[in-house]
Amino acid sequence: MTKHFALALHTTTSTLDLAIASINYDAARQPQSYIIHKQQSWELGRELSVRLHGCLSVFMGDILWTDLSYVAIATGIGSFTGTRIGVVVARTLGEQLDIPVYGFDCDAIVMRSQQDMPPLTLATSLLDLSFGQWRSQILQGETLTTWQQILPNYGSSP
To answer: What pTM value is reported for the model?
Structure first.
């Protein structure tokens, strides 16, 4: 049986924060809950653009990319470069693996992290927010969110 995982990337600060959750299904193969499989942070500062892919590869370990059910990404507000790099990675994974990508702004992520004691990490909060949206779409038979929908559309130039 193929395992199903969710990946969260938080790249909007000088700290790279990653988390993976395994998704639990009921007997009817409906997603019921998730369990944090692992979580890790790296203080990368300005090295994020150089080290992200290596950190992500090591972090994934023996989990296959094709085992991912969806990806969650922080869409800002934060470091412009870090946010863009993270969004590109999430978009690439979503597009190549044909899986949903969920984006959340940092205010929502921080608010969610502070609802628990001790506070959740940013990537763990991101997983919690995205699992709720993904599970709701699955159970209601809605079209899953695509990578094109994770960034706001600022309109076309005149």
So the answer is: 0.88
